[in-house]
Amino acid sequence: MSTTTPTPVPGTASPSVMIAVDIGASSGRVIIGRLPAASGQAPGTLEMEVVHRFPNGVTEIDGSLHWDAEAIYAQVKSGLEAAAAVVRQSGERVVSIGIDTWAVDYGLLDAEGQLIAPPHAYRDARTDAVIPTVHGALSPERLYAIGGLQFLPFNTVYQLAAEEDLAGKRALMIPDLLAYWLTGAERTEETNASTTALFDAREVAWSDVVFDAIGAPQLFADLIAPGETYGALRPEVAAETGLDPAVTVVAVGSHDTASAVAAVPAGDAEFAYVSSGTWSLVGLELDEPVLTEASRAANFTNERGVDGTIRYLQNVGGLWLLQECTRTWAEEGRGRELADLLGAAAALPAGGPVVDANASGFIAPNDMPQRLRAAVEAGGGELPAAPAELGSGVDADQAATVRCIVDSLAAGYAASLAQASELAGKHPEVIHIVGGGSQNTLLCQLTADATGLPVVAGPVEATAQGNLLVQARAAGLIKGGLNRLRAAIAVDPVRYEPQR
Known about the structure:
One of its GO terms (molecular function) is kinase activity. Belongs to the FGGY kinase family. Keywords: ATP-binding, Disulfide bond, Kinase, Nucleotide-binding, Rhamnose metabolism, Transferase. It holds the Pfam family FGGY_N. This protein is an alpha/beta fold. It has two domains: about 15-250, ATPase, nucleotide binding domain (Nucleotidyltransferase, domain 5, 2-Layer Sandwich); about 265-460, Nucleotidyltransferase, domain 5, CATH 3.30.420.40. About 35% of the residues lie in helices and about 20% in strands.
């Protein structure tokens, strides 16, 4: 591991703090970040304090899935108000705010800059009908050669093609929409822009070719890179939250995976990463995109990271499968503690059934256990049908289903990393699992077993840490590249060695 100490900037030992707004598909948080240091000394390791949590989720409106963006914004302001109260009591000073969320989704604005309707959620099926039309206008090969983006049915290019009327409208990705409401400035942060398939990976610019092909105007705002500034808070926002009007909103890796990868505690060894949450993002950190036909055929994506890096990765399902199963079982009156479910699954022998965790049939919510059972049976396997109780209090079908999910994720990670290594010509020596999945000991061990590589688990809070450290550098509290940022992360990682 690297032991490089961040370089201090003279005169920056003031009690300055940053605020991270970190929003996922199921929840959001507002977090204060500090880099405490004695006067004249280098900044210490990053400290975080969660001041506000709130639930998030899709809402069904007229048969379609949407995000309640205005409710999310109200929660963000509540979190900023809570942060301002903490800072007033401590005598600290807020210097900036950074926002990260999921990718691909956007809000449409009218000519007056008002949100037209709640943004569609990526799990909505509205894109299914337009995918053949888009590919008829611009072949998948040409689309990949421009943007280097893996095919997913909910990519922004398909969502935009599904819109009925875009005349006179403007669009902002979800984190940019929140930043716009805070500052009044319309910008598009480039790590999220790179997830749209409307972006030229070589030119680092919007692609007129793609917009023309789908018959849509280029309606997104100009690009901004992590570390650049949207602007200062609008006076009314400052008054409402109690923050100083001079506080700025700084662009971070606004795609949450970009922030998470920026916080991977990597040293000098070649590494792979798994950002494990609702989705699993599995890949390598590169200097240049891989835009070959072989890469397209393998369905790898080239998304931008902090400091112009490339996140060369695949989406491999994720803990969404487990979350949906536990939710369904709870509704059936069979709710169990996650630790008990994983313990019962770990007690089962290896070699059980696996499924393609990234199959499109698992994208939508509801009745995940039955869909997993059907996929296992379609592959010639079986899961216990009757809920026979095991000694742990976990039903046999639950234990087998959880083991199937975790085995399938580990197998998916191994397959993706083997392909990524071959296509990019980069061979990792270690795998870093960050995010919520780093706490899942069964998943970490099975990943080490499946890949034959050691797994280093942690930090859990990688997304918020990456967000805050980019802000700290923008404020002059840290100086240097990604290695310097990563060196400021306090982590006591757990290492898993391959056992078979």
